[in-house]
Amino acid sequence: MKTGTIILIVVLALCVCCCITHRRVIKALIRHEPMPKAPKWHCWVKKENRRA
């Protein structure tokens, strides 16, 4: 395999992982729904916007 092909595969795999991880947020954006609460460990998000 050429280096360019390997880099492309890695970038695409990372994009798929990102989409899977943020699927609830993406769904909320598409459906114009309120943003879901962030996980508890997201310390940069205000406490009222995090899950318990």
Question: How is this fold's topology laid out?
Answer:
Blueprint: H1 3-21, H2 23-31
Structural overview:
There is one protein chain. The chain is mostly helical and 52 residues long. The chain contains two helices and no strands. The protein has helices spanning 3-21, 23-31. The protein is elongated, with a radius of gyration of 16 Å. The N and C termini lie far apart (47 Å). The mean pLDDT is 95.
Features:
single chain; 2 helices; 52 residues; 0% strand; elongated; mainly alpha
Task: Give average pLDDT, whole number.
Answer: 95
Q: What does the radius of gyration come to?
A: 16 Å
CA-CA gap between termini: 47 Å
Strand proportion, as a percent range, falls in under 5%
Task: Give the CA-based shape.
Answer: elongated
What can be said about this structure in brief?
This protein has helices spanning 3-21, 23-31. The chain has 52 residues and is an all-alpha fold. The model has no long low-confidence stretch (mean pLDDT 95).
